[in-house]
Amino acid sequence: MTASIETGAPFTAAMVQMRTAMLPETSLAQGIALIREAKDKGADYVQTPEVTNIIQQNRKALFELLASEEDDRSLKAYRELARELKIYLHIGSLAVRANPERAANRSFLIAPDGNILASYDKIHMFDIELDGGESYRESANYQPGETAVMSDLPWGRIGLTICYDVRFPALYRALAEAGASFITVPSAFTVRTGEAHWSTLLRARAIENGCFIFAAAQAGKHESGRETYGHSLIVDPWGEILAEGGVEPGVVLAKIDPAKVLAVRKSIPSLQHGRRFGLSDPKAGPEHLHLVRGSV
Asked: Per the residue annotation, which of 25, 39, 41, 50 is the catalytic one?
């Protein structure tokens, strides 16, 4: 069953596009400046990208700089900034120490009073090998999360995801069925995968779930040597791109009308029509497919 949703008045959402540095202090200065710019342009909700605090390829150097959530200076500064600016500030993610051997890739949704409304640990680890020798093993440094997370905002319910999660549509369907009008995808996409899939995946998640997608991105050549795609996006429930960034740090904004979620889901009620398919014999052919009655 799909949860009912309540919608609020229109608001302005801003995606902060960053080029995170190798040191948290440098990254924090960049983030604060861009968040202030977003506020000056009228933003009510501001999102930063994945790994807002540090992009560091070397494991030893990374762990020397990591702090626990309780001791992380960037998180404390961003909480104070949200309180000062009176905005909903969504730090797409911070690399924080989870235990001596692993970090967490953790998203923080901060209220205008500086309190943390919700936090989410990235569930799906980016462990891939691309042609040309480009490879990533996120699981070598980070422990995956296990729980989907949502929170209520004045304008509706928001679901939290991070980057590589976008390739796993079941997570987005679960959030939408639980009443999310907005789903977030703060990211640090590679250039190659970004050119091929970024816009297509984000628009697909918006269309199939009838929700807004907010995706702040890392952009450009970083001090660490990593290069990210940029093109932060705000996509509406019909799949239309409302705002898009380029390849440099900056801010993109769009006016968000939550009522559009209800309108789109009424016109195409796919969330109510989902059914679960089963396979009676995994070794059998297509003729053995059968439909398991009931909602997804």
From this structure: 50
